[in-house]
Specification:
With 736 residues, this protein is α/β, with parallel strands linked by helices. It has 22 helices and 30 strands. Strand 7 and strand 8 form a beta hairpin.
Length: 736
Amino acid sequence: MKTGAWEIRVRGQVQGVGFRPFVWQLAERFGLNGSVRNDAMGVLIHCDRLPDGFLAALSAEAPPLARVDEVMANAIEAAGYDGFSIVASGGKGAQTRVTPDAATCLECLAEIEERNGRRYGYAFTNCTHCGPRFTILKALPYDRSQTTMAAFGMCAACAREYGDPRDRRFHAQPIACPDCGPKIWAEPGGDPIRVTAERLLAGEIVAIKGLGGFHLACDATNSAAIALLRERKRRPSKPFALMGTLPMIADYADVSESERDLLADPAAPIVLIGGRGGLPEGLAPGQSTLGWMLPYTPLHRMLLREVARPLVMTSGNLSGEPQVIENQEARDKLSQFADAFLMHDREIARRLDDSVERAEPQMVLRRARGRVPGTIPLPDGFGAAPQVVAYGAHVKSAICLIKDGQALLSHHLGDLDDALTWEEFVRADADYAELFAHRPVMVACDQHPDYRSSRHAAAKGLPVVEVQHHHAHLAACLGENRWPLDGGQVAGIVLDGVGLGTDRTVWGGEVLLGDYRGFERCAWLRPTPLIGGDLTQKQPWRNALAHLDQAGLPDLAERLFADQTIAVARMARDRRLNSPLSSSAGRLFDAMAAVLGICPERQSYEGEAAMALEAMAVDISSGAYPLTTSAEGVIDPAALWHSVARDLATGVAPATMAYRFHAGLARAFAGQARALVDRGAAQAVALTGGCLQNALLLRLLLSELEGYPVLHHQRMPANDGSIALGQALVAAAQSI
């Protein structure tokens, strides 16, 4: 027991999670007098003494959504405390974290089922431990007056709950009930849930307003409805996300324990789960997994209960544009897709897509609702890092802020070629800066001068650090794994689509030796011409032609792609017309897919061919295709292609060939990384780049690297979604 008055500072994810009522209850238990409040730094506690166990309890017993980073206590002059109170928050802006939106908790789900309860069937039921946060937040500190709930005055009953520290809704900022809160309605009219369910069961498409935007929904068991949605949205094959309860999902998939845990996480992400159990092929053509999520709001829960079957829940937007969030915007833009609407009148402060993740192996494919704006602590050695903002890549764009020992990676923003996505990017830049009182002294960006994000960085009027694309990938992996600033160099296996290299060629399949401060390119795929430039990302046959010709197999290319404009393509390559050299692993995947007949003419979405190739591969331990490596570090796939040609000629199953391709690539790159560790040049191996979202490739690499220290992405995307994090860390490292 320490006597005298004390001031206690708690930093971390401690606003909007019920931390103040939790402190009040602790104070009651320990018999303390004083106060607790939110402010720009986190939570501030004043108390008249410091009993043993109080500081430890602040961390050990914190509310479910809280994350406590630091608790500091300092003696202060005594004040005349009378009881313990929760006082109003002070100051705008924050150096604390903001809590992401959280799925409805079990207590609230039970409450909407209570027929005699006052929140029976209420679509906006929430409490301190669940509900909207970031999607309704306009400014910090997190108080109701600074959220989109400010428009809804509390009724007397809600006010009593809000003011009672013993109630689980004490200071729950989005608190509401049918008498005073937001409302839902259907267009055309009728009972919102019942009418919407009837329309879905009749095979119609309904636009549904949720937490971070609108979804387009249809019956996931109805092939005709799925085909209609694909036709209207002009989305021929990209997988649709599904929503179902756990029992529904278990009817169609063998859900593992880790997948169940991830589905039930408060973030409620879309989780990729194997098997389709009789569901229509049209949900995810050519794929072996389906993306499932649980109903994360009461509205979704009630709708699923009414339809009693899983629903497609895909982003409500025009192709390439950001998700729609406003009611009139939805009527204007989504009427061409939707037969009806399920609306509500709570404003969405910022649009957030659903996060997409895997449980086995653990990885994040898209970081958005439920995960953002969670931060990660900077690794050891970055304590003196200044405030930095980084603007990421051109596609899968995101923004990263460094401040006060934390890195905050924004939500997924999308492809900056689209004008509305660009507007959203600029808006997010201003939004995050204002919300978190961020005042950068330098900016970081990709070294590609034509990226919109790079031009945006140059226009900020601050010192700019240009970071090579694959160095940023490497730094992002190091940062996520909290590799120390002076932890030594690592061997980075970086496999992705395209990124401008320091030699001005297009990179994409490298082994780098480096750290935050710099790197050396030690091995790389043999450069192959991208015949047609950007067309190679859409037409896989072009990649196959380039690789087969380079391997001395032109006759095979002519036989496989006789219907394509091979002569024109070869002429362009020979004259070096729009045919830059590239070491891209992503384009190598496309080439192999095309040779096996997977969408050789055109991909309808990015990664379609590679994802189908992964789904085709059957792990039968059937060996690996060979790739040779020169003394200079050039990894040549020519031998791979000759093996492929022999397997094609002898009728080897495509599934076996797809597996051998993955295994050969993993073996070749892992061998180069192991050599760097063996000779003492590298302290560990880091796996990064968009190709590392291929679960089979990741497993094979981990197997090849067994016994070596390996870093890989688990909480941040391996693709360009985390490039901004790497850029920010490189810039910070160079400034220290």
